[in-house]
Amino acid sequence: MRKQLGILVAGLLYYSGLVGVSRWLMQRSGKRLIILNYHHASGGHLAHHLLYLRRHYRMMHLDEALAELYQPDERQSSKDRRTPLVLTFDDGYRDNYTHAFALARKLQVPITVFLIPSYLDSDRTFWWREGVEIIQEATVAEVVFEERTYHLQDPGDCALLEQAIDTRLRQAPTVAEREAALEEFRCLLAAPQTPLPSDHRDRILTWAEAIEMQESGWVSFGAHTMHHPILANLTNPEEVRNEVIECRRVLEQRLSRPVRSFAYPVGGKEHISDHAVQAVKDAGYSWAVTTFHGVDTPQSDPYMLGRVLGDVSRHWLVMAAETSGIWRVLSTLWKGRRR
C-alpha cells in the first residue's frame, strides 16, 4: 500500500510538471553532478529508469563527470545544458553484466561499476549474502549462538539469527576474523558450501566479463577494496591501507587501465574512518564516493562525495522525482510535520 501511494504521489509530481520545474531549477543553480548508487541490475525497472534518465540528463562515466565538475574553468565543455548524471553499481554482481551492460549497449548510456577483486572468478557469494545462505543450507533443526537457541523451522528465529550473524561479520576487526567466523557458522549449522546456480541473482562477475564490459566503451570501473570490510571497524591501519591500495593495483593490472575512483564499503558516516580517507588519498585515487545522500558541486569534498539512492525495485516515476530533488524536499517536509 505504501509503495503504491509513493508511485501515486510521484505520478502527481511528474504529470503536474513539478518534477520538470525542479529539474530546470537544478540546471540553473550552478554546476551540479548527480551520482546514482545501484547494486543489483535485475528484477526491477532499470530499463525504464535508463529511458527516462537518458532523455533528461547528460549521462557520463564517473571519472569524466568528476573531471568536468572540478575543472576551474566555468565554461561547460558540452553544449548540452542538462545536469550531468552518473550511474554507479557497487560490488560487481553478475547482473551488472547480464542486465546493466546489455542495456548500456542497447541504449548507449555509460555506467560505472565498483569492483571487489578478491571475489571475481570465485564460486563464493559476497560475505553479507553468505550468512543468509548458511541459514538456508543448514542441516540442523536448531542452533545455540551467543547463549540463545534458534529454531530454524521458525521464520522469526531465522530472521533473528541472520541479523546476529550479520552483526558479527560486520563488526569483525580483521578480514581474517570475518572469514573465520563464516567458517565457524558453516560448521555450527552443518551447512555445505555449494556453488550458486548460473542464473542466481547473487552470482558475481568474472574477470572475462569485466574486460568485455570495459572494451565496449560503455562501462568503466572503480575500486571497492580487496575484500569489502567495513573500514572503520578494522583495528589495524595497515590493513586499511592494504585493502585500499592493493585493490587499485590489482584492478589496474587486470584491466590495463588507470583506476581513479573509489567507493567506501557500505559508505555511511559510521563506516568511514580517518584512516580510510587518508589511505584513499595515499593510494593515488582522485576521488571517492560514499552512500551519503547528496548532489555534488565543485565545493564538495572529492574524497567524500554524496550519491542518490538508485534501486531497480523503484518505479521510474519515483526515480524521476528523486533525481530532480523534489522527492527529497517533500520527504523532509513530511518528516518534519510528523514530529
Report on the architecture of this protein:
By secondary structure, this protein is α/β, with parallel strands linked by helices. Among the domains are: 109-124 and 204-308, Glycoside hydrolase/deacetylase (TIM Barrel, Alpha-Beta Barrel), CATH 3.20.20; 127-188, no CATH class. It is 46% helix and 14% strand. It is built from 13 helices and ten strands. It has helices at 2-15, 18-27, 46-56, 62-69, 95-107, 127-136, 155-170, 175-188, 207-215, 237-255, 274-282, 316-324, 326-338; strands at 34-38, 58-59, 84-91, 111-115, 142-145, 148-151, 219-223, 261-263, 287-293, 305-309. The strands form two sheets. Strands 1, 2, 3, 4, 7, 8, 9 and 10 form an eight-stranded parallel beta sheet that branches. Helix 4 (62-69) links the parallel strand 2 (58-59) and strand 3 (84-91). Helix 7 (155-170) packs antiparallel against helix 8 (175-188). The longest helix has 19 residues, at 237-255. The radius of gyration is 21 Å and the shape is globular. The model has no long low-confidence stretch (mean pLDDT 94).
Features:
alpha/beta, 14% strand, 46% helix, 339 residues, 13 helices, TIM Barrel
CATH class of the domain at 109-124 and 204-308: Alpha Beta
Order of helices and strands: HHEHEHEHEHEEHHHEHEHEEHH
Number of strands: 10
Identify the overall geometry: globular
Structural class: alpha/beta
Largest sheet: 8 strands, parallel
- CATH homologous superfamily identity of the domain at 109-124 and 204-308: Glycoside hydrolase/deacetylase
CATH topology of the domain at 109-124 and 204-308: TIM Barrel
Count, helices: 13
Which regions contain 5 or more consecutive residues with pLDDT less than 50?
A: none
Q: Hey, roughly how much beta strand do the residues contain?
A: 5-15%
Round the Cα radius of gyration to an integer and report it: 21 Å
Mean pLDDT: 94
- Architecture per CATH nomenclature, i.e. the level-2 architecture of the domain at 109-124 and 204-308: Alpha-Beta Barrel
Separation of termini?
A: 22 Å
- State the share of residues found in helices, binned by percent: 40-55%
